[in-house]
Every structure is written in C-alpha cells, then in structure tokens.
Amino acid sequence: MAINDDSRMNTGAFALGALSPEELERFLVAAESDPELAAEADGLSATAVLLGLASTPVEPSAKLKVDLMAAIASTPQLPRDTAGPTVDADIAAPSASSTIEDARSQPAEAGAAEQKARTRWFARPATILVSAAAAIGLFVGGGFVGSAVTGDTPVVVDQQAAGLAQIYAASDVQSVRSEVDGGGVATLVWSGELGRSAVVVDGLAPLPNGSVYEAWYINDAGAAPAGTFDATGAHKTSWHLLDGTMSAGDTVGVTVEPAGGSKTPTTTPIVAIASA
Question: What domain range includes position 216?
Fold first, then answer.
C-alpha cells in the first residue's frame, strides 16, 4: 500500500493526536506533498478542537478532592534521596567500537522534508483553534455537544465532520436561528462560497421507529432532498451536514418522513430557515 494510502487511514488519529512518533513522521511527510490529504487533516483537526471546546465543563466535586488527598496520605512514599551524585574517579575512555555502537543506537536526525513538514504542521494549531473558536461562537447558549446524528459509519461521519469544519472555516460563513414547531431550536450554518450548509438542532424530540427527520433545499424550483438524520433528545444539540449544493437564497426546511426518507416532502416542515 502506498504511503499516502496509509496516511489517509490516519487523518482522524492525527487530528486527535493518537499517532505514534513513527506514524506521525510518515503522515507529516505525506501531507506535505498531498494538498488533498493536508486539507482533510486540517478540517478534522479543526473539528476535533471544536468538539473539545463545545464540551460542557464539569466542576470536580468536593468529595473528589477529599478522596484524592486521602489516597495521597495513605499511599507509601519513597524515602527522600539525601545522597548526592557520585562520580567514579577512574572512568575509562570509550572505545572506538562502543562509540560507533552508541551512534548507531541514536535516532537519525530528521531530513529536510521531515523538518519542513514539522515546521508547516506545528505552526497550524493557533489557526485551527481560532477557526474552531469562531465556530463555537455560533452556538453560544445552544448547548452544542458535537454529536453527529447521521447514523452512518465512522468513515461517513469523518467526511461529514470534515465538511462541517470547512463551512466553519469559510470566510463568508453565516448562521440563522429559528424555533422548531413542537419544541427545540434549529440553526442553519452555511457558506455561499462553498455552496454547503449544515443544520444544528437543539432539543429536537426523538422520533418513533419508522420515522426520520429529513432536510430540504427549498426554492422556486421546489424542494430537493438533502439527507435524513435522527435526534438525540431534549437538551442535546446535534448537527447534520446537508447533501447536495446550496444555492443563493435557498430556504432549508426539515420535515418528518418515513424511514429512508422521501423524494418530496410528505409533511409540513417543522422549521424553515431562509438563507437570504
């Protein structure tokens, strides 16, 4: 398998900092020569930061501190090392063979490509953090917990997360909030430059078996299906990256449809948000 093929399997692990040093080195070199791989890694990294920032902080309980201090007090400690370092007066000079073996055992310095890749990639976190923080600003008060509710495989979820991050990072990203009939709030986030959009829903009621929520692009030509999704229940916020291309002035609507979705809406939209 080509190195870039291996690296494409590791974009998610890279975004979460879960690669071994050797895997990270290979990934950085591959991304340096593959703009598509670099863009995917950027998107997932931004999303990882976004989800981290979106998690609700939990204050440790007072009992946790008490338990921790009690554990420290009851755990045997090593005695203080009062003896200073000792130096042998007679130290033999290293032999030529041992010097060579020591050199062989040391890791080789990174080559020019590795150094360039590291410089490029490790200069990115600030930019990624700013983009993700700006995205979080769209949902202040919405309780966003970053749950992908597509019900798809991890690969598809990764693709949706990358697409969501691209919208957040777009220079023309916009958002509009609207109340949902029956309870809940929906936020439409979109980029005209990218022609992409996502719906963020808070407190949307779970549906019975056999029904799904379906998103639609609505304009003078009618309603075009834009994918189905589920809900996580009250006080949870989830997102759905819409299928297809968003055109200027489109309204995004959500209806309740039979499992699998419909080609045309069969119910009245529970929410319709204009992008104009």
Answer: 141-276
